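Have a think about this chain, tokens included, and walk me through the fold.
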Amino acid sequence: MEDSITLSAPAIDSENIKEYNLNFATGDKTVSQITLTRHQCIEPSLLDSFLRTLRHQSDDTIKAKINNYTRSGSTNVEKLELCNTFVKEELYPNWEVRHKAIKFCEQQANKMKIELVDKHLDRPDKKEYNLRLDPYAEKAAKEEYESHFKDLDNVTQWVENNKMVESILQNTSDSILKQRCHANREYLQIFWDNIDKMTEY
């Protein structure tokens, strides 16, 4: 049975949802739920739309989000509590869904590598060819061999690219949270310390 995982964008505060336009300039439609299979990792256009939606709902609009959450607070303590509510109820769940999506494709890449190695144990550069009979035999064999690894290379590159994007976005958000909420709280480190439980921070 094919591996799959269904992921949904975390709910946005109903009082603020109208303030965030989730249509993109490219005409791309928002994707709020996705069922990932290996195919979505190999052809990630739908997955990319899903991640863009999630990023727009959180990191891309984090300053406005914090303002909306904290504007009702009359004291610094109240504002901090409201800011923590945003982090716990919106930001961290959003990061977690994105992490699960990227992790799924990373696991698929690892499985693809094992499958391909098992299937293609005989590397063409280890074979002997009679080039007098077929001068292109070795070249054709190498091209066929490499084509089997194209999808694996694409998925691996996609995973690495998105890990880098996540790192940049999360570090930026961590800095903004320290400026707007609590200067001494390690928001990013707390997230990674609790990635499996997401219950305390």
About this structure: The CA atoms of residues 15 and 106 lie 36 Å apart. The chain has seven helices and two strands. The first strand starts at residue 5 and ends at 8.
